[in-house]
Design brief:
single chain, 403 residues, mainly alpha, globular
């Protein structure tokens, strides 16, 4: 490890704090599930929400890492270690997928014995889809998705590690060669995972844009997360000399682009379904235009898109790391709210949910997040914070105002 760029000593303390907060979150989540009177059901529903949120940041890290190699841009060089550490947490997420398999019957209607389903129309539909939607094939597909993602993580981090040791520029080319087809397979795996894990909660509903929408959501929330971590690191040696306003400006522009892309996909999906007005598609939205979901929908529109969009247009705000992090924090919170809006109405089946349940979803997300962040910081401490043997490093530092 190049000692000039070694991780600051107090990252270990942050790792400990994250795990401590995670344990508190898990205790509240378990106690809340028991008290709710619908124990295991509530537990697994909260688990799925937390899982989709954190796996989104991990997959976002891998997506940005692939794009960074493909584009060869200097913005990605400065945060490459963050991207690698986030992508590395996919090992943890692969293990944490097992409880979802154990709780399949509590989450997905299609996993039940079809003869027990009262609605004949739904039973026929599920029989028609059973070749794809069955527990065995669902498990095999999940293994394939994780196989693709983890292969890419290992290939890219191995080349990055070798380059630190040897400085061989051909390793960058090799990583680039993997990233082209890798990004294609990454996108396909993310799309099918979104269909399997989230869209199939309502086996009647479908949207051809759903995979793209989830990938854009991953891109938004992960970039907001990396900006937040950059602020933490910029207060500490050695990154206080590396991270400059120009770098935050670049990351802010990427965040703005992803906010716009996410909004474009969201609006397009709504517009197409609304215009089509088909009985198998429109009820999904009608369910979310009722009760508390209607207000959350407006909150998502203003706080996940309109306000961040307007604020991120400002060049001065993007160069001011403290102000940029406030916008990033808002986006991370609203991503959680957006996932509640997408996932939770499927569990309520038209009944108004209890406010306490939403607190259980929050506790689960904090609980899982504590361990996710613990893994992330642990991984970040293993290597120097900057790829010091990368031929583009001098250019990346000069772009931030270093000479």
């Amino acid at each position: 490890m190049n000692t000039n760029y070694a991780a600051p000593a107090d990252l270990g303390r942050l790792q400990g704090v994250a795990i401590g907060v995670g344990i508190i979150g898990i205790i509240l989540w378990v106690v809340g599930s028991v008290v709710s009177g619908n124990g295991m059901q509530t537990f697994f529903q909260a688990y799925l929400v937390a899982y989709v949120f954190w796996v989104g940041i991990a997959l976002g890290g891998l997506g940005w890492l692939l794009l960074q190699y493909l584009g060869g841009a200097t913005w990605g060089l400065i945060i490459r270690r963050l991207l690698e550490s986030a992508a590395h947490t996919l090992i943890l997420m692969a293990v944490l997928f097992v409880p979802i398999l154990l709780g399949l019957h509590r989450l997905y209607e299609w996993s039940h014995d079809l003869n027990t389903i009262e609605s004949e129309a739904l039973r026929k539909l599920l029989q028609h889809k059973s070749a794809w939607l069955n527990p065995g094939f669902f498990t095999v597909r999940a293994a394939i998705y994780f196989g693709i993602w983890l292969l890419l993580v290992f290939v890219l981090t191995k080349r990055s590690h070798q380059q630190d040791q040897t400085g061989d520029p051909s390793l960058i080319q090799s990583a680039q060669n993997w990233s082209g087809p890798g990004f294609l397979f990454y996108g396909l795996a993310c799309t099918f995972a979104a269909i399997d894990w989230v869209m199939s909660l309502d086996a009647e509903w479908f949207s051809t844009m759903f995979g793209l929408l989830m990938i854009a959501g991953q891109g938004v929330v992960s970039m907001a997360f990396f900006i937040s971590i950059c602020l933490v690191l910029s207060k500490r040696e050695p990154m206080s000399h590396v991270l400059q306003p120009k770098h935050f400006h670049d990351l802010g522009k990427l965040l703005l682009a992803l906010v716009m892309l996410w909004a474009y996909f969201s609006f397009s999906q709504l517009l197409i379904i609304w215009a089509g007005n088909l009985p198998e598609e429109i009820p999904w939205y009608l369910e979310r235009f009722k009760g508390v979901w209607r207000y959350l929908g407006f909150a998502i529109l203003f706080l996940h898109f309109a306000l961040p969009f307007l604020l991120l247009l400002s060049r001065d705000l993007k160069r001011n790391s403290r102000k940029l992090v406030i916008v990033a924090g808002l986006i991370i919170i609203m991503r959680f709210v957006d996932l509640l809006w997408v996932i939770v109405p499927e569990f309520e089946h038209g009944h108004e949910g209890h406010f306490a349940n939403y607190l259980i979803y929050l506790a689960a997300t904090i609980g899982m997040g504590g361990f996710w962040l613990g893994w992330f910081f642990w991984r970040l401490r293993q290597r120097s914070l900057v790829p010091f043997n990368d031929p583009q490093l001098h250019e990346a530092l000069a772009a931030g105002g270093h000479h």
